[in-house]
Write a structure and sequence with these properties.
The protein is an alpha+beta fold and 344 residues long. It is 59% helix and 8% strand. Helix 2 (41-106) runs antiparallel to helix 6 (137-192) and helix 8 crosses helix 9 (259-269).
Amino acid sequence: MASHRRPKQPSRTRVTVLTATAAAAVALSSQAAHADPKPKKEDVKSEVDKLYEQAEQATEKFNGAKENQEKLQKEVDALQDKVARGQGELNQLRKGLGAVASGQYRSGSIDPSVQLFLSGDPDTYLDKAATLDQLSGKQAEQLKTIADKQRRLAQERAEAAGKIKDLSDTRKALGDKKDEIKGKLAKAQELLNTLTAKEKEALQREEQQKSRSSRGNERPDLGNDVPASQRGAAALSAAASKIGSPYVWGATGPSSFDCSGLTSWAYQQAGQSLPRTSQAQANAGTRIGSQSALKPGDLVLFYGDLHHIGLYAGNGQVLHAPKPGASVRYESINNMPFQFGVRV
């Protein structure tokens, strides 16, 4: 006898699971269909250049913090040495007064005012003018000398403590900037790693094309511009001897440089000391407002915050350490937003 039972319907739970699975499959296929395409080489290059520029901005701040740290360290060392010498002098003064008091004690004539001083604070004691009447002229002078020395010593200790706090803050800022630079460079490298081998080669060719004119017989035409000065000419010549040296953030030569590291090193070879950062070097001489007035050896500042600097080489060319991943080279001054020149 045939069965006339109705077929078993799927449970509500099973229907829900199947529906959810189907929905997920549709969502995944939709995502796959609308997934962001692989970034183009031009977009990657643009983003990497932006990160390199940000890393260079952070580098100049790092350089400034490092210079400030070195300055503060010298000041702290000098103050601590001064405090140590002052304490030694104070101890000698106390010892001298103590010897007088001991002699008086042995002869049975110790001045009660001296006795009180030796067990307390001379500054407080000297405030009581009446007590000075009990002292000999020499002892009063010694007490005043000791009190003055104690006051100066307290001021120097407070100043040293303040400098040490500044030094600690500067070291923290230095570490933060170091981390920021490394982070920017790491992110740039991650983006570069998304490119194919062919795309990487194309980017490398573009960089080589920019550097090629800096080498050998293909050196750019620098014209016959008269140098800004003999010292400027010497600085430019020193920088030119470093063409091909790699850009390394925080480096001041002689084998690698960042932008302000190259300019400060070059002028140092010419016998002129420059500040460490591009922003500080912007105030190292007379400002030149127009490109047409620039002469070889002049410093050239770029970008609104002056985070990049190079040396004018003549005929619209600048010699500089461009960015991470590039080497010291000549480049058109128009490749970056010119701000002004500085004649050292």
